[in-house]
Design a protein that fits this description.
The protein is α/β, with parallel strands linked by helices and 138 residues long. It is built from 4 helices and 5 strands, in the order βαβαβαββα.
């Protein structure tokens, strides 16, 4: 048997999805899974915090969060999670009209509902850093 010199494939990137609408959450889980992501889904911010705290440091590649939810909004959730991981990447989604207080101030990107799966894929790709062939981030 000849050893394989090809680098091991990169493990799937992990997305922490926080969406209080069950139907929207299910569609997003399916779409992200189809894109090759490992999805950790939460229905409310407190559940997302529990999931996040149960993971090893830096194991979440992206927070994909609704902006308007019970308990706390997406920006407050991001601030809470960034206490532990200041470089956490984020993509906010919202069905609300975005005014002057935009999540971009929190270092996030915004995708307005409704959106297509190709728009979601583009937004997620833009929110994440590139990986080299070896799987490391550049």
């Amino acid at each position: 048997m000849v050893p394989n010199d090809a680098p091991d494939p990169a493990p799937p990137r992990r997305v922490l999805l926080v969406e209080d609408d069950e139907d929207v959450r299910a569609v997003l889980v399916d779409a992200l899974s189809d894109m090759g992501f490992r999805v950790l889904a939460a229905s409310r911010p407190s559940e997302a915090i529990e999931v996040f705290e149960g993971e090893s440091p830096r194991s979440i590649d992206l927070l994909l969060s609704d902006m308007v939810m019970p308990e706390m909004n997406g920006e407050d959730l991001l601030r809470r999670l960034r206490r532990s991981e200041p470089d956490l990447r984020v993509l906010f989604v919202t069905g609300q009209t975005v005014g002057d207080s935009c999540p971009l101030a929190a270092g996030g990107r915004l995708l307005e509902k409704p959106f297509t799966s190709s728009q979601l894929a583009r937004a997620v790709r833009d929110a994440l850093p590139d990986r080299t062939a070896s799987g490391s981030v550049r």
